[in-house]
Design brief:
Layout (H helix, E strand, L loop, with lengths): L1 H41 L1 H26 L10 H16 L10 H19 L4 H11 L3 H9 L4 H29 L16 H4 L9 H21 L4 H18 L2 H17 L6 H14 L3 H8 L3 H6 L1 H16 L13 H6 L4 H4 L13 H34 L3 H23 L6 H15 L6
Length: 459
């Protein structure tokens, strides 16, 4: 009895000690947070500087990372956006996480549940920690962009102008890259393809520029089009630059030879015009005429559209087989999938080859993904995680749409319209390629979402 009583007293004392330690740790974090926020209030330019650096790195580095990675001396540059984001997020977790205001939004609750589902999927499927972290770089880390931009005190007008300026100049650089490839018939990056064959532009018929992939080039052009078309609709940014940027976007889209992004652009344009106040289908007609004229520049994309049919899709053995296999995997593992980094993406092929492919008798045929984001995503994290992911973005979309309709502020309308267009476009593109797996796309979407949610109307 005495021993039992002493044990109880020991555990009671230990529990009390833990509570004191946790309490002291919490108050240390609160004090650190208060000090940082006081410094931020006193030196407002620090917030502005941090947000500008963050946005610049997150938007620019992914555009050129394939180009720099092709030169061993500069390969480290491709990790700069990861380093900047991870460092900023770590500072946020240490100092700002206790702020309760960050948790009073619906999307925060859905993200928390999504985060838990991704972690549970990894634990249940016994995914190796390094594999989990590599895939979390795509599934979780980009949300840190939204959290950071939402928590920083930022000048939204300056950042909106910065985003437009960065993209405007990058569009010119990417266009000159395509012109160089057209003149020289050589890729800016590749000398041989993944099969070791000599690579030239004329035999492939699609252009890469500094981005290094025609599909990624087309996706990025669509995202830029959404930004500048939104700016045109609400009268934000220089009208001359907007028209130049939109023309370059369409040029890049056509020269990429990518069908999915072109279809995605038409879909998002039609939807936005239907939802806009006082919109006219004359705009859709003008876009169609311009696209038709630009199609003459690229016979390749015309022939690719002409070859589209149900039989063509079925004959495309790799993609059709990958879709069937992913549906089988989802049916066998509906709740939490096969785990992050276990099927369909770059991590499961190039980083650590997954046993799931052998289990389901599937060959990747030298390709680094199944080239479809949604089947890959649902198969890896399951229906619960996918539902939370969907509800998060539905909540964000509703907030942006309502803000666009009720706000009279051009800056609010710009951010809201751009985000709505980007969510619609990226949702469609995720059916036809693995775009959201790339930082080029995920960073772009998250930066716009973070800037929009930094000051958004209630749903």
């Amino acid at each position: 009895m005495v021993c039992l009583g002493s044990d109880k007293g020991y555990y009671r004392g230990l529990r009390t000690g833990f509570r004191i330690l946790l309490s002291n740790t919490y108050f240390m974090k609160v004090n650190l947070m208060s000090n940082i926020l006081n410094i931020s209030d006193k030196y407002f330019f620090l917030n502005i500087l941090l947000s500008k650096i963050l946005v610049t790195f997150l938007l620019i580095v992914p555009i050129f990372e394939n180009f720099f990675s092709s030169y061993p001396l500069f390969a480290w540059i491709s990790f700069l956006d990861d380093i900047v984001l991870a460092s900023s997020l770590l500072l946020f977790i240490l100092a700002v996480l206790p702020v309760k205001q960050l948790y009073n939004l619906k999307e925060s609750a859905f993200f928390s549940l999504y985060f838990i589902c991704v972690c549970l999927s990894g634990i249940i499927n016994e995914i190796d920690l390094d594999v989990f972290l590599m895939q979390a770089r795509t599934y979780i880390l980009p949300f840190g962009i939204v959290i950071l931009l939402k928590s920083l005190k930022i000048n939204r007008l300056e950042l909106a102008t910065l985003v437009c300026n960065l993209l405007f100049y990058c569009l010119w650089i990417i266009m000159f890259g395509i012109v160089w490839e057209m003149v020289t018939d050589k890729s800016l990056i590749y000398e041989v393809n993944r099969y070791g064959e000599s690579f030239n532009i004329s035999s492939h018929g699609r252009y890469y520029s500094f981005i290094g992939n025609p599909v990624d080039l087309g996706n990025w052009a669509v995202m830029c089009f959404c930004i500048f078309y939104s700016a045109m609709k609400v009268g934000f940014y220089s009208k001359k630059r907007v028209y130049i940027a939109l023309s370059i976007c369409l040029f890049l889209l056509i020269m990429s030879g990518s069908r999915g992004p072109l279809i995605g652009l038409c879909i998002v344009f039609f939807v936005i015009e239907s939802l806009s106040r006082g919109s006219s289908f004359k705009s859709l007609f003008k876009l169609g005429m311009l696209l038709s004229a630009l199609l003459l520049l690229s016979p390749v994309i015309v022939s690719r559209f002409m070859s589209m049919s149900v039989d063509y899709f079925i004959d495309d053995q790799y993609r059709f087989l990958a879709l069937l296999k992913s549906l089988t995997i989802i049916a066998d593992n509906p709740l939490f999938g096969v785990g992050p980094g276990a099927f369909g993406g770059w991590v499961s092929v190039n980083y650590s080859y997954s046993s799931v492919y052998e289990m389901y008798d599937m060959s990747t045929k030298g390709i680094s993904s199944i080239d479809m984001f949604w089947p890959h995503f649902v198969a890896e994290i399951g229906l619960f995680g996918t539902l939370m992911f969907f509800l998060y973005w539905l909540c964000v979309y509703k907030k942006a749409k309502n803000n666009f309709r009720i706000s009279t502020n051009a800056l609010d309308q710009f951010f809201s319209a751009a985000l709505c267009m980007i969510i619609i476009a990226s949702s469609f593109l995720a059916f036809v390629n693995i775009s959201l797996e790339t930082q080029l796309m995920s960073n772009f979407v998250m930066v716009v979402a973070g800037l929009n949610l930094s000051k958004a109307s209630k749903v």
